[in-house]
Amino acid sequence: MYPLSQTLARERMLYASPMIAAPSVMLIDMPVRHRGEGLALGRYYAIILETDEERGELDRFLDEPRPAVIAPDLLDTRPSSVVSDHVIISRYEPPADGWPWVLVCRWPEPYARIASDSPGCDMARDCYTMEVFEHLDDLKEHSAALLEQLGTHGQLKIRMLTPGSSLTGTA
Asked: Which among 20, 94, 141, 162 could bridge 99 via Cys, Cβ 3.0 to 4.6 Å?
């Protein structure tokens, strides 16, 4: 019997929320034998945490002894408790050397419904998409392309959250 915290999720990092309206992210650097397609950069399993209670629940889940390795998917399909009519884009700096940049988008219900019907679009908690980047320049380039693409959809309320700032606008 082995807890995931000592096996699959031994290497993990908490990315704290950049602002109260944004979730925290737990990123698990998967052991080599569990890496591959479906993971961010082929190696990271990301978990959206909306509350401190969920963080405690995840910690207990990871510490629970198990007879076999299972996916740490406790919160993946739990509906979000956050309500917003804005697209919220949150940027997370690496909390320590060797960890990637993270970009999380929280989509309002009408846009989440459309996106969830699109092939290849996986949404965590029915409303979040996430991208992981090794380099800040790649994140900036992706963010600019995302904002440009969102601008083609008419009046759309966007809130971009980055450490040390909170930008709001319409596209």
From this structure: 94
